[in-house]
Amino acid sequence: MTAKHIDEMMMRHALTLAHRGLGHTWPNPSVGAVIWQMHNGEPVIVGRGYTQKGGRPHAETEALAMAGDAARGAAIAVSLEPCAHHGKTPPCVEALVKAGVGRVVTALEDPDPRVSGEGHRILRDAGISVMTDVLKAEAERVNQGFLLRVREQRPFITLKLAQTADGFAGADGKPLMISCAMSKHRVHLARASHDAIMVGVGTIIADDPDLTCRLPGMMHLSPIRIIIDTHLDTPSTARVIETAAKVPTWIITAEDAAVDRETNLKREGVQVIRVQKDSQGHLDIKAAMRRLAEIGITRIFSEGGPTLAEALVVNRLSDCVEIITSPEALGRAGYVALRPALKSALADEKLFVASPPHVMGRDHLQYFERVR
Ligand SMILES: [Zn+2]
After folding, report:
1. Other beta carbons within 10 Å of 13
2. Domain encompassing residue 127
3. pTM listed for this prediction
4. Residue 47 has pLDDT above 90, yes or no
5. pLDDT at residue number 170
6. Are both 195 and 262 inside the same structural domain?
7. Catalytic pick from 8, 42, 60, 262?
């Protein structure tokens, strides 16, 4: 194994660790770190860590704690440039220098203009060998939410939409129970790796969903629930409102929505966020996402119906689209899942790269990834 192979192998491991923190570290990025020593030409891992819930402790601190004295003279792979600013705890670069680490391998420079390059510089000034941009493209993918928040002032959005074999999302004022058990499991797993789940008020009224992660042992990983509700029409009897004291629930509404409704929702523990309307009198979805990024949200899983899905895609706000198609047809008229603007955007190769559909239990799942 060459040194380059070892660096990449360790970075791949660090990125896998970083993946574990996704959905739980906002507004901070989820970072992974692996420390290793060379013994007879073979790398031996002596410490590893990833960003803990809420963003602290950092990955480097976790890995250094595990390595103890073995960190002296060791190499460390970190998926993002180590922090250099003094916050609630001393910066990671200081901890790395103090531990006597001999070599630092990173995947990405911190995009925050106040930080970028400073961590690397301090490490080099301390006589540590620094190698940057190792598996950069892979690291950009893992950290897309954090990067978009800093670079484009919006969160990363995964959009999920389920349809019948003949293309309907709902009928007779109700969504259809479309997805199979395996697809549902996958959805609950996806919820846990996002900072927030988002739906429109129509979904709340029609379906009254819980919007929590109900896989065994994962309830505590339920993200924030966000409802797009222009006129504050969310009923106080909705499950998301009744459980708002336990699972954070935010409603994004228009600046002119009724104040008394806001007061009632706040009493139930809901956080109400007001944003401007667009020129057509609809809630400005771009402004809403900008506001969420300002608050610190980096990753959103959108489970709304066709209206919200179309708005997100038309406004170029969705980064990954997942279409779940059941083998059963509705066989009569219903609500079309993929409206014309959404359908044509997904078919446009300049906008999205489509994966071949894969089998998910009884259903088919197709991914569309935004072209950057
Ligand atoms: Zn740090």
Report:
1. 18
2. 3-143
3. 0.94
4. yes
5. 86
6. yes
7. 60
